[in-house]
Every structure is written in C-alpha cells, then in structure tokens.
Amino acid sequence: MMRIHQPKATLISLLTTGDKILIAGIAAISVFSMLLMSAFSTPGSFVVIDAAGNQHYRYRLAENRTITCEGPVGKSVIQIQDGAVSVQTSDCPQKICVKSGAIQKCGQLIVCVPNKIIIKIEGEDNRRTLDVITR
Length: 135
Hints:
alpha+beta, mini-chromosome maintenance (MCM) complex, domain 2, 3-stranded antiparallel beta sheet, elongated
C-alpha cells in the first residue's frame, strides 16, 4: 500500500482574510498606542525605592548616586545616573531587574521579586490621589 504525502499547512495558510485583518489592526493599534504613550509621558523627578517592605528611600533623579539595598536573597546595587535609574547588580537568580535597563519617565517601574525591591519613578507633582473607589 502506498502512502500519499500531504504537505503540512502553515499557520498563515490556515488564517482567513478576516483573521489577517484583525491581527494587522491589533498590531497597528498596539504600535500607535506605544508611540503615543512615549510621546506624552513626562520625565520623572524622583525615584522611590521600597526594599523588602521595611526600607523606603526617595532620591532626586538629578543627583547621581549608588544605593545598595539588602533583600531576602542578597544585595542589589541601584544606580542613579544622568536622570535615570537602573539595577546594576543583584543576587537574584534570573536577574530580570538588571536586564530591564534604565528607567526615567513617570510611572515606570523596576521590580525584583526575589529580593522584594520595587523602584518607581515619580514626578514633581505626584499627589496622593484616589485611583478607584469601591464599595
């Protein structure tokens, strides 16, 4: 008995025209919104560091400095340089916080989950306002 070899269908060939239009539309909206967010985001003035829930630091981004924070896994070295902040080294296993690079705009975060360190950029007029009220 002879087997007939049929070529495998590629993912593109399985999509309908409507699927392709939907995917292209979602991609276009995503790119547009990322460009819009980066154009209208404001540069930060302060960096707030919450280390392991018990140490809380607030520094100006204009002042270059290096901070060492102690966490459950070990030390994390945070550097403020030229208006941006980044994690230089960390004792955490995957080093996602180090790989995330420098941040400098309001609302941006760097989080080291194993070391329980949160780094957040805030602006000059960061007021404590309510985001949501629930009942």
